[in-house]
Structure formats: structure tokens, C-alpha cells
Design goal:
One of its GO terms (biological process) is defense response. A seven-stranded antiparallel sheet has the order 1-7-6-5-4-3-2. The longest helix has 18 residues. The N and C termini lie far apart (48 Å). It is of the alpha+beta class.
Amino acid sequence: MALSGKLIGYVEISKSGDIFHDLLRHKPHEMTAIAPTKLHECKLHEGKRGAVGSVISWHFTHEGKKKISKQIIEYVNEENHTIVFKVIGGELVDELYMSFKHIFHVEPKGDRQVATWTLEFERPNTSVPYPTSVMDYICNIVKDMDAHNHTI
């Protein structure tokens, strides 16, 4: 029996959510310039960049190891800056989890905004850990994006 789980991470950002949404949805390949030690390449395999049903893969370094994550864009909502990525290949689903999703959205918080990442996953058993290091990694990338956006 699979064990479902969810982790949610919040990062306060100084720029508008549309900048983050546009970067993740339409220009993910530009992320390699923002976080070059973490993200090395983002390839489009199928579909149109940013469209629901498109398939992309990320080449990245996590915990000192080079990894790949192949994902399909499942859902997009422009109004609340939401993007849902379902992981369909790579170490997360090939070696650890039975299923894995990244959900990104931005919400207002006073005069600032908060970037929210939700990780939804199914562990095959209790020996597979919660993906807390993945969440820390993603939140650090959001901080890199925010620092980069100060120059825009």
C-alpha cells in the first residue's frame, strides 16, 4: 500500500508572481543562468514550451550528484500563477517514489508575495524518506530567482 504525502514550502519574494510564473512556464531554460551550480539544462521534448501536455527535462545537481527529472506540465492557471509539473522520469520516480508532483503558485502577502511550492508524492514504504532535501533545494532556487529578479 502506497503512503501519500505532501510538503509545502513558502518563500517570500520581492517581485511580482508573473515574473516567476513566466520564467518557470515559458523560459525554464533561462534558469541555468540564474542558478548555474544547481541547474545545468532544461530541454523541451514534446509540445510547445509552457503548454499543458508539454514534456521537459531538467538536468541538475542535488546533494552533490548530477540528476535528471523528466516532467509533463499537467495544469496552468495564469490568474493565480499556478503550474503543476508531474514527474514522469528520473531518479525521483524511477528509484524512490511511486508518483511525484511539483505544484508552484504565487499568492499575495501584504505588500509582498509568497512563492509556494507543494510536493505531492507516494512512497512505496516507510523506508523511503520524505523529500525534505528536495524542498530545501527548490526553495533555495526560488531565492536565487528572487535575487536575480532584483536586477530586472
